[in-house]
Design a protein that fits this description.
This protein is an alpha+beta fold and 218 residues long. Helix content is 23%, strand content 25%. It is globular.
């Protein structure tokens, strides 16, 4: 796998939420981009220098420091939607090629370039801003049914990354819970939720949801 592009958000008004900005408008940048773990939660800090989130209740922080989406999945959606989808249009920081991001295991670690080490933490859950940004009616349901969510990642070791960097597998756990499986568990297949409870690499709030919903059967 490799990086096709590294994408940074341009703040813009968010008409799909009241009185806030959004950083979903991400565009490829040239040259190296510093990457480091956010120093604090709830401030809008993310992993890439020059980027941030504005809906701090739902996004950002250490568990959502970097968002990766595969060019192969963007190409799938291009065919489905009948429109071009440039790198970064899904709000992803990293547009990858040559690897199955949704097939990555929770807790899997990627060496990106010579320095940066990232850890897969959880899937992206679609929101109203995403639907409004793409201007596709019923987008949340359609995206959910396809179960191609892309992956949020933590920053384990900081450094610099740039387009063209190799992405190498540095660690792969043995539990078998993928990004796609965890997404389906949290959305369309709640019977999978018990599989998430013991996965320590999942964010604590995801495990809490899985535990509570498993207990109630919902």
């Amino acid at each position: 796998m490799k990086l096709l592009s590294v994408n940074i958000g341009r703040p813009r008004t968010n008409p799909w939420k009241t009185s806030t900005l959004t950083g979903i408008d991400k565009r490829p940048v040239d040259g190296p981009v510093p990457v480091a773990a956010p120093e604090s939660e709830g401030t809008g800090e993310v992993g890439l220098a020059g980027d941030r989130v504005h809906d701090v209740r739902s996004h950002g922080g250490a568990d959502q420091a970097v968002y990766a989406y595969a060019r192969e999945d963007l190409d799938y959606w291009q065919g489905e939607l009948g429109r071009p989808l440039p790198d970064g249009v899904f709000g992803e920081n990293l547009t990858t090629a040559g690897g199955d991001v949704n097939g990555a295991l929770i807790g899997e670690r990627w060496r990106v370039g010579p320095d940066v080490l990232l850890e897969v933490s959880c899937p992206r859950i679609p929101c109203g801003t995403f639907q409004g940004w793409l201007d596709e009616a019923g987008w949340i349901k359609r995206f959910t049914r396809a179960a191609r969510p892309g992956a949020y990642l933590r920053v384990i070791e900081p450094g610099e990354i740039r387009a063209g960097d190799a992405v190498e597998l540095a660690h792969r756990p043995g539990h078998g819970v993928t990004v796609a499986m965890s997404f389906r568990a949290l959305t369309t297949e709640p019977g999978l939720l018990p599989r998430l409870v013991p996965i320590e690499a999942l964010p604590h709030y995801v495990r809490d949801v899985a535990r509570k919903r498993s207990d109630t059967g919902r």
